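Structural prep section.
Before we set up the soaks we want a predicted structure of the protein with zinc ion in place, mainly to decide which crystallisation condition to try first. Input record follows.
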Amino acid sequence: MRAVKGANTTPELVVRKLLWAAGYRYRLNVRALPGAPDIVLRPRKAAIFVHGCFWHGHDCRRGARVPKTNRAYWQQKIERNRTRDKRHVSTLSNEDWRVLTIWECEIKNEPTLRRRLLAFLK
Ligand SMILES: [Zn+2]
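Run finished without errors. Recording the tokens verbatim:
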């Protein structure tokens, strides 16, 4: 998803800012790991993906919105992304990584997002 996602999307910056403020230090876009997780806290063996709801087919309003033209094309493409995401998560889990997926639509509610991140890293 490199071409469409970009490494510095706003949702990712929000997550990074929250982690940094909470005192966590991390690496970004670790390509050595399956799926090149957006944020990696190696000492904790924790990997965080920040996913756009549309591209990664989130089960939410924004994620359900499929363009009216080329509908089948988009549905297939997004389904492929979902399959790949799941594979990356299970590969990481099998290697004893803890994985958290943050969705774009969760960014709006920073207090909740912050709680989720801290609970995950605790
Ligand atoms: Zn969503």
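Observations: The first strand starts at residue 27 and ends at 28.
Flagged for discussion at group meeting.
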